[in-house]
Amino acid sequence: MPELPEVETVRRGLAPVLENATLTEVQVRTAKLRWPVPKDLAKSLVGDRVLGLRRRAKYLLMEMTGGGVAIIHLGMTGHMTIWRETPPPPGRHDHMDLLTDAGVCVRFTDSRRFGALLLDHRDTITENKLLRNLGPDPLSNRFDGQELARRLKGRASPIKAALMDQRIVAGLGNIYVSESLFRSGISPKRKSGTVQGGRAEKLAVAIRGVLADAIAAGGTSLRDHVSPDGAMGYFQHQFSVYGREGKACPGCVCDVEKTGGIRRLVQAGRSTFYCTRRQR
DNA sequence: CGGCAAACCTGCGAGC
DNA sequence: TGCTCGCAGGTTTGCC
């Protein structure tokens, strides 16, 4: 499920029920996630009020009045569900419940358990190992064509790999990299260092546009619901290339029979989808 | 440092 | 129907 637009959708769904709420109970049923859930999690959070729910790249940061900050990552299959009434009995993959003084339950579910919940403190959060090397958030004003060009300069790797690298730009994943490259007309195989000037500008604009459109659509729902209120995201219906191998490129008028349509290739172990005619 | 495969997990759909 | 295989939205680690 979660790249930046899905995480932002989750943040927006949870914020109204978590912000200003006091946590009355934290139930951890599965401590074995991407990293072990801290043993003192409940002790650190219960009784504190949630000051704010923020997002940094694909991480959710829940800031507490006591100074604690819960760092949440949804991994590949993690999602959150809000229960305003008594929640159903937890299933095998319902690893955690956060209960608030308003009687709301926020349940964390993650079948593959690549997600994480860790603790830090507001005084040390900027030096946190998971956060300190992240590149700019593409929707922030720290990100534009010039900044992207600077970060790509001199790199020999294909641009697909560079955009997947969270140190270059933070928040893209496999779907939105393919879609952004398509929108900017850049081949995923192009050497990163050659994406400079106008080309970098175009790519930066494409990244921002794709992410903004995806957030407006409530993210992408391929297998899981993304929104904590159960609503499906529908950006998958706007995909130009992702998952569309052999289908017609939306920008090409050529016959699919002749061109073969959208191509798939594997780069660094991940599928990339692109159009050989429109992306150079 | 760069690049790549493997590792961590489970579920699902395709094909036989 | 039921099994096996490949693939899946992420990130770290370890090896050349």
Number of strands: 10
The CATH topology of the largest domain turns out to be: N-terminal domain of MutM-like DNA repair proteins
Mean pLDDT: 95
The poorly predicted ranges are: none
The major β-sheet equals:
4 strands, antiparallel
Shape: globular
Order of helices and strands: HEHEEEEEEEHHHHHEE
Structure classification: alpha+beta
Hey, roughly how much beta strand do the residues contain? 15-25%
CA-to-CA gap between the ends?
Answer: 29 Å
Oligomer: single chain
What is the number of independent domains? 2
Indicate the percent of residues in helices. Answer: 10-25%
Output the CATH homologous superfamily of the largest domain: MutM-like, N-terminal
Please give the radius of gyration in angstroms. 20 Å
CATH class of the largest domain: Alpha Beta
CATH architecture label of the largest domain: Alpha-Beta Barrel
Quickly count the helices: 7
Strand adjacency order, main sheet = 1-6-7-5
